[in-house]
Each structure stands twice: as structure tokens, then as C-alpha cells.
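Quick one before lunch.
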Amino acid sequence: MPDPYAPKKSDKFTFGLWTVGNPGRDPFGDPVREPMAPTYIVKMLSQLGAYGVNLHDNDLVPFGASAAERDRIVREFKAALSDHGMKVPMATTNLFGHPVFKDGAFTANDPKVRAFAVQKTMRSIDLGMELGARIYVMWGGREGVEADACRDAREAIKRYRDCVNFLCDYVRDQKYDVRFALEAKPNEPRSDLYLPTTGHMLAFIETLDHPEMVGVNPEVAHEQMSGLNFHHGIAQAIDAGKLFHIDLNDQKPGRYDQDLRFGSESLKGMFFLVKLLEESGYDGPRHFDSHAYRTEDEAGVWAFAHGSMRTYNIFKDKARRFAADTEIQALLKEAGASNGDGLGAYSREKGKQLKDTTFDVDALARKGLAYEHLDQLVVDLLLGAR
Ligand code: GLT
Ligand code: MN
Ligand code: MN
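Model of the 5-thio-alpha-D-glucopyranose complex:
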């Protein structure tokens, strides 16, 4: 019998080259896996049912490569994409790996470092456009501090804004069809990062010259590091029309950025996330930004990739069952879950009427809501007992 959860191209699953390509290096230990050629990653992911791959400039073209070398690498990579029917929906810039970015990129104190970061991003956007990307992620991995004495945090935000504005105008000038997605993270690799959560990013975007060009790329692990409810943040981004991209993975609360396989830790939280994405009509890529455990060889990497996609599809099926479950739906109806009746717009008369209304507050307060029962039904559903 065919696997009903098998990933298909139409599911729009993508992986960063840096994710399945992660060699298992950590701050305490050396790599445990051989590097894999980007063209090989494209082939293998396609066979597993993925829709595409995403990349940093230097995942494909090594830092400092000559123009001729760059062109050869890009040509071969494009051939692999077309041979295996794979897309590059998103591209990004590595603004954190090279020592030049040790004090940040867009927010660094040295204006030459900031200018180099913008130049690197412009070239990297050109590469992304050549590969067909329509979303450009900005993750400010080094935009932060250990020593807060080194700069005024307001100055950092201003520099960040200036760079994003410059890049928006570059894209407009080139007539590129691309949107930016900003990714937040509270800390790591810096002690503190500026713009630490998706909520901070949403507020920052409204201060830009072209806010319509810029949205967010929230990552599960990053919000959970801050102890936040990920799917609530996603709901707010969707409500604001700003969910341009998403980084799916998993995380235990209060740890370093673990980038665990999607759905491997927070079963209930990830169920509600998938339910939200599917029911909201989000049609962007379902991108996995995670990597296999350091215990794994190459076979373990593909098991990790397959598992990430399969788990998403299982949650998608559970969301369908939740919607079709008569007992769950009856409880939701009784609880008034979709009762959006509001006061409507204010008028002086309505305001007066409301002030004069008598509520039976005790009766309202006495009513049990049966959420224990409802939640247990969700647990039964997720554990396969329903
Ligand atoms: C890096 C980081 C991720 C970002 C990537 C995009 S790079 O792996 O940990 O969260 O999404 O720059
Ligand atoms: Mn990420
Ligand atoms: Mn992460």
C-alpha cells in the first residue's frame, strides 16, 4: 500500500543546502560527515519528493571565488535543478560566517563593514534572481552584542533600517520581482541579537520606506528559545499579511538553537501550527531549517529529511480529522469558538446602550467551558487513539 503521508512536489517542501548539508560540527566537536555537493543534494532531495532548495550565497559559491569559477558553479547547479525538476524559491546571504562580520554586518560600528555587507547582499540577490528565487531572507546572525557599551542600541536599529531601505531601493531599481523576509532570533551566536522576535520584526517593518516589500520568516526554534507560543506569532504575521516564508524545525524550550527535526519535540504545538498554515491558505514553501543529529551518517540525513516532510503530512491529516470530528466540532460550537459577534463600530447611541445594559455576570462566570475534555480529544487524536 502506498504511504499516504509520502511527500509530493505539490506539498512545496524545501530544505536549505546548509541543512541536509550540515556536517555535524558543533562548538565542542569537529564535523562527523563528509561535505555533499549542492548538485548531489538537489538530486537526493528531489528523489525524496521535495519541491526545492534554498541557499546562502556561500553555500553554493565559496567566499572569494573568481567570476569564472562562480559562473561555472552556477551553470552546473542550474543544470541539476532542471534535470531534477527542483526550484530555488528562497535565497539569502551569509553575513555571519566570515570574521569580518564579528561585530555585526548591517549594524557593525565600522561603516566599511556595513558597506561590504550591503555589497555582498546585492551580489547575493543577483544570484538569487538568476536562480529564480522570489523570496529573500535576511537573518542578522551577528547583529547583536556581548558588550552593550559598544554602541547605542537605537543607533543599531537605525543602521539596520538604512541597509534594508537601501536594498529595497536596489531591488526596485533592478525591477526584480522579489520580497524580503526578516528572520528574528533572541541570541546565539551573539549574547543578544537586536530585533529578537517576530513581533519586534513586525513593528520594525512598519518603520521602513517600503514596508509592503518586507515581511517575516519566523523560525520555530528561535521563538521557542524565547519561550513564546510559535503558532500565535504566526497567526499575527498572517493577520498582518506578512508571513512571506517560514522555517520549520523543533526545539526544547530554554536551550541553545537546536534546529531539531520538525515535530520531533513539540507535538501539540506543531499540530496547531500545521493546522493554522493549512487552514489559512498559506501557499508559500514549507521550508525546513534544521539538521540531522550529530550521531548520523548520510543515511541518517535522508531519514531526517524524509521524517520532517512525513511528519508535516501526518499533522495535515490530523488537522483534517480535527475539522471532521463531530464531537470536537460540537464542543467548539458549544464553546462559541467561531462566534465572532462583536459590538460593531462605535456610535454615541450604541455606547450609551452598552453602558445601560445589565449583564448576569455570575451566570457568565459559572459556565464551565469543557476545555479539559476538548484538549483530551486533541491528545487522543494526536496519539492515534481516536
Ligand atoms: C543559519 C540560521 C538560520 C537562518 C539561516 C538563514 S542561516 O542556519 O541558524 O536560522 O535561517 O540565514
Ligand atoms: Mn532559520
Ligand atoms: Mn535555528
